[in-house]
Amino acid sequence: MQYEIIVLAAGQGKRMNAGRNKQFLMINSVPLIIHTLKLFEEDECCSGIILVINEKETDEIESLLQEYLFNKEIKIVAGGKERQDSVYNGLKALCGEEIVLVHDGARPFVKIPFIHSLVDMANTHGSAVLGVPVKETIKQVAEDSAIIKTIDRSDVWSIQTPQAFKVEIIKQAHQKAAEEEFLGTDDASLVERLGKNVYIVESDYKNIKLTTPEDLLFAEAILSNWSNR
Ligand SMILES: Nc1ccn([C@@H]2O[C@H](COP(=O)(O)OP(=O)(O)OP(=O)(O)O)[C@@H](O)[C@H]2O)c(=O)n1
Ligand SMILES: C[C@](O)(CO)[C@H](O)COP(=O)(O)O
Questions:
Q1: Nearest ligand to the CA atom of 11
Q2: Long-range contacts of 21-27 (CB under 8 A, 24+ apart)
Q3: Location of site Transition state stabilizer (predicted)?
Q4: Which residues constitute the domain of residue 138?
């Protein structure tokens, strides 16, 4: 099934501490955002790519898109202050597919089969996300002390992107969140606020979000034997 994708790259990369947007950091001599975009350039089920960027980085992004010879049209949209604002702007640029995926540009290692399973799940149920079961023991830490409290991890998952939605659902979710000034850390949380179910599709642990400097080491290791199939 065909889908459009909104790829988010309008952040500042503060936690990467690289002095610039982490999307431009080279991973095996290729910018991070190019690794991510190439996934969807190569997926025949992806009918359209909307790239959300910081307007101040337009020239650099356009130069990279020309250098890396994309065949698909990549529509560039200005991001916003928060990730959620960037998604909202991306939704306004959709071209008409029934299913839209929202993906962090900082996640270059998602596998195509997982994406296709995700799209199928969203087509059936309306909304779906990729994720993996947590592997560590999870604790809550009291705000005013170092006291911890163990959380039962048996039904706790670490949620990734892409997240897939029927367009009318995610648009309604963002509209409600904007009206109520609710800010979520992912798009699925906005759909849950509609009282609608969101379904999980198990991914793998290679679908990391490059966030802090040590993630660059993991990325080099993953790339050393990488295949998105
Ligand atoms: N206003 C924002 C904030 C984030 N993002 C994007 O959302 C994805 C996930 O966000 P995160 O990993 O937090 O990236 P940054 O916000 O850049 O990182 P930091 O929080 O460390 O500054 C990234 O691809 C980022 O570029 C975005 O498009 N618009
Ligand atoms: C959307 C996300 O990647 C799901 O895990 C995550 O919530 C993004 O968080 P960030 O702080 O905006 O990177």
A1: 1
A2: 21/54, 21/57, 22/106, 22/210, 23/105, 23/106, 24/57, 24/60, 25/210, 25/216, 27/108, 27/210, 27/216, 27/219, 27/220, 27/223
A3: 15, 22
A4: 3-224
> Quick check: is 118 in a domain?
yes
Ligand 1: does its nearest atom lie under 6 Å from the Cβ of 184?
A: no
* DSSP, res 205: T
pLDDT in tens, 19-66: 999 999 999 999 999 999 999 999 999 999 999 999 999 999 999 999
Residue 40 lies inside a defined structural domain of this protein:
yes
Q: pTM higher than 0.95 for the full model?
A: yes
Q: Is 111 inside a domain boundary?
A: yes
In this structure, what token pair is assigned to residue 196?
A: 């609608």
Please tell me if the CB atom of residue 189 comes closer than 6 angstroms to any atom of ligand 2: no
162 upstream amide cis, omega within 30 of 0: yes
For ligand 2, atom 3, name the residue with the nearest CA. Answer: 160
* Closest of 63, 60, 34 to residue 49, by C-alpha: 34
Contact 83 CB / ligand 2 (< 6 Å): yes
Q: What is the CATH number of the domain that holds 73?
A: 3.90.550.10
Report yes or no on 229 lying in a domain. no
Number of domains comprising the chain = 1
